[in-house]
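User: Can you fold this complex?
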Amino acid sequence: MRYVLRRLALYAVAAWASVTLGFVLPRLMPGDPATMLLARLRGKLSPAALTAMRDALGFADGSILRQYVTYWRHLLHGDLGLSVAYFPVPVGEVIGTGLLWTLALAGSALLVSFSLGTLFGALAAWRRGGWLDSVLPPALALLGAVPYFWLAMLALLVFGHVLRWFPLGHAYSLEREPSWSPSFILDVARHAALPALTLVVATLGTWMLGMRNTMVALLDADFIKLAWAKGLPPRQIMLRYAARNALLPNVTGFGMALGFVLSGSLLTEIVFSYPGLGYLLVQAVRNKDYALMQGLFLLITLAVLAANFLVDVTYVWLDPRTRAHA
Amino acid sequence: MSALLAVRDLGKRFSDGRRALDGVSLDVHAGEVVALVGESGSGKSTLARVVCGLVPADEGQVLIAGQRLRRAGTRVQMVFQDPFASLNPVHTVEHHLLRPLARRLRQPAAALRAEAARLLAAVGLEASLAARHPHALSGGQRQRVAIARALAAGPEVILADEPTSMLDVSTRLGVLTLLRRLADERRLGILFITHDLASAAAIADRVLTMYAGRVVESGATATVLGAPSHPYTRLLLASAPRGERILPRASSPSSLSSPSRSAASSRAFAAAAAAGCPFVARCPDALPCCPDTPPANRTIAADHHVRCHLYQEGASEHAALS
Amino acid sequence: MRSRFAAILGDRRAVVGALLLGGFAVLALFGPLFVGDAGAAVDVPLSPPSWRHLLGTTGQGQDVLAQTVVGARLTLGIGLVVGLLVTLFGVILGVGAGYAGGLIDDAASVTTNVFLVIPGLPLAIVIGAYLPPGPVRLGIVLTLAGWAWCARVFRAETLSLRAKDFVAAARLAGEPHWRIIAVEILPNMASLVAASFIGTTIYAIGAQVGLEFLGLGDLGAVTWGTNLYWASNDSALLTGAWWTFVPTGLCVALVGFALTLLSFALDEVTNPRLRRRPRRGPVVRATSRPTPPSATEALVSVRELTVRYAGSELPVVDHVSFDISAGEIFGLAGESGSGKSTIGHALLRLLPADAEIDGELRVAGADVTALEGEALRRWRWRDAAVVFQSAMSALNPVITVGEQFVDTLAAHGQGSRAAARARAVELLAMVGVDGRLVDAWPHQLSGGMRQRVGLALALALEPRLLVLDEPTTALDVVVQREILERLVELQAKRGFAILFITHDLPLLTSVATRIGILRDGHLVELAPTEQLCRAPRHAYTRLLLSSFPRLPPVAAKRLQVLP
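Assistant: Here's the predicted assembly.
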């Protein structure tokens, strides 16, 4: 329990730091930041709306402390200002639609690649020197060294453009109305397949190599030797003794790599014009939409923190030693 | 004559508040080897690190020739347990000796090298080893290099923390006798920390037994090991293998193989340490007062001190009974 | 150090990686001199590869080849500089915080962890959005988003090095802190610094290309990332103009690949464990003459046992023969490297894959060297069980004590779960462990308790032979004594034989009936305990016996009474 609480405290600090970063950064900009931030909105907004926007971005009238407090108040009410790129939709709304798509795509791809990678890694370590161990890791590591989005471009070219197996982009066929009908869900799956596959292929190597290396080291451990001596079935030794223990550092690694992988998946979305957060991010950058940018940064950070927390809880569940000091 | 190393009422707490050292006092005279025995967790190694100044004390003080030692420095040098970790793998043997020599002697390089060669000879190593890296040496050789490095700093006191426990048996005695010889020839004070009573018996002038951060018995080696008085020292001595056969059950002291005692000991340990004698949970001779009152240090014979209620005023009849 | 370097050079992957990198370095340095102005429009936009333009033209009509070659310069330059900066930053922060400890370390470690959990790309974007464009912006942003990973690695390494005794020795020698860091700590990190430089350079190139692809680069400059940005902006994907992005991407991939190869090679050099031969069963060259078992019906019969590891000339065990009769306590004594543990492991067929076993091994009539696969599995633990030295690591840390009994009993088809649990409680009681501890996790037990659990596990199937490999070496004398007494008692009651392996001769003489002395793989003396102690014949036995200091006899009176 102590472990989980300590992690929670860390996430609280991280969340505070990222919120505060959004407040501090504009102030480091040369010139008059407030004017610049709002330049593209001037004339489009009523004076009252302009003031609200200033407040939300941390430029309320008064002392800097007051500005900070106002900034927080707006944030806690979910008011992140108005988007320039999607004027005049509030940032919160713009992000809301993208979040679902990103979570579904990146989340499922990550889970698939982590499970598969871990399994392959365990198998590779178990049959050290076998074909799985000698062929797959270098091949996957090569793929892992390639930028995800370029892999996505290649996949799109080959499977979308040349072979025409998959659609060229978007989350669903634009002529369709979103619904829960089986045909629509199938359509969504068809659109998600290629980006998800790209992500799985790009990240598989990391998990596989990590698992392989921890497990190889572990196979020399005394309790594995004892398990052999006890005549336990090899499958049990592999799964319950070796893999179960090798999983622990890998789960920690998974938590730490989350942010990195998510960043890659955002870029992949752009290639597929997938309407997730990555696509919004590029719109924000190209339109100098600071409010949207900060909103996205906050939301993505919070999502990663939450996912990290889930990983921690899983870790505690997996490792009795972290549970001991209740 | 006043002691070369005088430790007075040293106290140290772990970060979780438990006492690692509790009012430890001891003397080491020039030319004397004092052995500190106890099991793992008794505070021996903590004591070593506090005495040489690597770790600050919470209470009490350490005096070298009457002067208070405040920081780690060359007057007290240490020989560590693990010969694989105590030498830097990237440096040669000679490099380990030259630095402390250079700091102390401030002489030209050639003179320092000659001095390093003399030191290697003094610890029984060939001069040809000077250019080697630690991984090319055996455990015993490494430990001798570690001793030479300690000497290079020109110390008055050497703390040897389990210097032989990780060595092969056939090289142990050589390292032990080397320590003895250094005490005799160079008039160094040596505090020899060990869990092995026989090693203590081999080279020490005096023996101290430590339990749960306290010195529970001290005296001349022949006295403490020949006529052990504290129940813990007796338990240690009874447990040490002496080559006599261990027979099934009948001959074993009743206190030893009772499972409940040893199972309970670790937990009772922490609880008892707060109030009375920390050994009470494992003690075969415990008195009614033991769990609640901490025993004081008593002198029971010339240069023989015991910290146990069996030897307090009015306890003599209990003692006589057992 | 030099041998490591040679090992890296000897690695084929490292050579390929280095050659690739060298090629790109030449390309980046001199290539731009030959390809002309990369920014100028030279032909019809999006024309496919032809003899005039080997890699076709971009959506703006620029030559793709020229763009790719020119792009290498800035991209690789920034990558290397950022890789260097991040590593430097990481070393300074990690080593500084780790060495200083205390509050500084706490603060640094919280900051590092915060930066680790904040996702890098969005962070880089918000920071980058407020800075003027250019290579400096990229450098700042990439360093800020990437330093934490590096700092964490170096902090961890510093913490472990700082705790080493050679650092303590340097402090005692009066060395100043800066010298301890520079002379004692940093040289031990050389390979880690190299590895992390390679890793951060991979990161820096990848992240840089990603940011530029997003449009956060300097769109006027020619780099690999902006090439990809323009390719995607000019709808190269939708028109199938593959030549606009494939060459650039391939370059990024090749550089990444080359660096990955280098880091693999470095990894294996610094972590030899990953390099070891595959694990299959040990190669058994049983001299299985179909002779009947030795005339005297011993429980264990070892004949001419020789064990050799692949690639080494000298055998670890050299023609060793001995018998153990039923119910006997047989001791093997020797120093490290004498081959004593190897013999124990060979008896149980636990040697690693690269061991070659020669000779005859019989336990309870079974030809141990002939057993394979399922038959071997079934034979194990039934007739011969083992207790290892390391009480700490011999139990699976993630399952309860009881579960380890259940696994063992189930593997040999013994009873239901409930029955196995009940048997576990019974076995624990037998070795003096509270039965309630069946539900405890291994880490909750003390070393002595764990070793008792190990003993109970070994007795689960009532084997006829118990191999004890330094079973009490890691324990305190008092606990050691308790366990030995329990062991001797159980042995007398149940009549199993023991092969007791230890370096501690006095200990062995107090339990074993016969003792074999091993030296460098040879059995130099074998005699009944008494005879061995009284009249050792081999010089080495005498040396061993004299190596143990003796305790003086304890005075008869147990207590002194107060004067």
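The two ends of chain C are 67 Å apart (CA to CA). DSSP finds 22 helices and eleven strands in chain C.
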